[in-house]
Amino acid sequence: xxxxxxxxxxxxxxxxxxxxxxxxxxxxxxxxxxxxxxxxxxxxxxxxxxxxxxxxxxxxxxxxxxxxxxxxxxxxxxxxxxxxxxxxxxxxxxxxxxxxxxxxxxxxxxxxxxxxxxxxxxxxxxxxxxxxxxxxxxxxxxxxxxxxxxxxxxxxxxxxxxxxxxxxxxxxxxxxxxxxxxxxxxxxxxxxxxxxxxxxxxxxxxxxxxxxxxxxxxxxxxxxxxxxxxxxxxxxxxxxxxxxxxxxxxxxxxxxxxxxxxxxxxxxxxxxxxxxxxxxxxxxxxxxxxxxxxxxxxxxxxxxxxxxxxxxxxxxxxxxxxxxxxxxxxxxxxxxxxxxxxxxxxxxxxxxxxxxxxxxxxxxxxxxxxxxxxxxxxxxxxxxxxxxxxxxxxxxxxxxxxxxxxxxxxxxxxxxxxxxxxxxxxxxxxxxxxxxxxxxxxxx
Length: 444
Prior knowledge:
By secondary structure, this protein is α+β, with helices and mostly antiparallel strands.
């Protein structure tokens, strides 16, 4: 029996590659306290060159802030921004096909890049990702959301809590000078340091090293995040976020109950799919759709399934947003259900630059990019951004991974709830509402 049948897993990774040459652009304006999204600190400390032998780690001496001081409202703003970005990206990503990704992994990776963005570059990133707090408040809010999601933080009950791993890795070019304030933000708010590497001489070996690191962090669910040629000799900084989640259902499905059942795919064809039966959760009925939530053990995380009525998938997907999901969650109520749901796996590779450009983030990928908050000495631009994610959902639970390159039985016969047509789903943290993973399943 393979490992995924013993539980469910999700993994993802996001990778961002920044290259640099020539002088950095002059700042477009002087940041002021009235400029939301821009860092108000002056560039008063000399840049810190990435020195040391290849493979050594360098970082700010500042410790991770375990009490970042973000308010609940600031955390809610960060969560809403992440959700709205995810909904927008979903609509642009492989329409009509199964897709699965982690908006949170992508937002984490780009949030660290955002710490070094200035001028129009920062403004466009703020708009696309919903980074609507000032730089000074945004990063503590992101830190607070991550800390709040650590299993056991909310005092969950009922079984073994899921495994959640959120890690950031950076590889910086030997001799390249980074701003102290930028390194401080990475250390204090993201717990991230930087490995010294020589991209000019060892780009293929560094690619293998980064891919190996991602595979290790995601329990080998994400492999080959970076393709051949994905790390270049002129790379200045490679930033990777890896996210791994594994949890068991609070009320597992019955393995004996799984059998093939028809699934009406988005293309109108009916196909058989292994369909699980059992489970329990909360239910709501909306305009043109139904929704059900399934808790994981510990009840700090859950899967939320949104099932559009036949013929209304595109309409409901178009409504997806933080406000839509907030309304769905507020109307969920406990209900005995004879839940029937596909057992499935989805693996997705997403190139991020085209959809990010489409959403309005243009300048960061051009020679006009302003990352002077990261490094003053050379012009930097995001030259690649990629994301991979994997999810396996079965009778016992879910396993998911992502990487971004940047319980009593019912006393009577319950009402059937058959997930037998295209649906949307999230894996989310209950207390904060933060969407870790977002997916569309439209065909077996």
